Amino acid sequence: MKNSRAEACMIYDNEKTICIDTSLPVFDLLGKRYTLFILGVIGNNNTRKNFNDIYNSIPGSNRTIIARRLKELTDAGIVKRCRKEVVTYELTEKGQDIRKGVICFLDSIDRTM
After folding, report:
1. Is the distance from CB of 72 to CB of 30 less than 8 angstroms?
2. What is the pLDDT of residues 55-67, one digit of tens each?
3. Residues 19-61: pLDDT tens digits?
């Protein structure tokens, strides 16, 4: 007998049940080119970065794609666009939480490779 979609999209961990479906848009965004690099650059030293700081920190990157990712990350509430004399970007609280999870995930992969 086939399992239902509801069962397939749930992860059970001790007393917690987590639905995968609500995370899919963020996973899609994290899987796009340069997204993880942007999270790394903006989150390192927890300082605001302007577009050129971000772009120049990612070797071989594409300006158009970096700009698109920053907009997508901003629209998703992961990055905040700050406008003063110069436009800068910083992680939101949600972005900081996601970055911490990504670090744990990457660390886990690194230890098993």
Report:
1. no
2. 999 999 999 999 9
3. 888 889 999 999 999 999 999 999 998 889 999 999 999 999 9
Dihedrals phi, psi of 4, to nearest 5 degrees: -75, 160
The answer to whether the beta carbons of residues 65 and 52 sit under 8 Å apart is: no
Q: Which CATH number fits the domain that encloses residue 53?
A: 1.10.10.10
Taking the C-alpha atoms of residue 74 and residue 107, their distance in angstroms, rounded to an integer, is 26
Q: Which two tokens stand for residue 44?
A: 């390192």
Domain housing 52: 23-112
Rounded-to-integer distance, Cα 14 and Cα 107, Å: 22
SS3 call for 92: coil
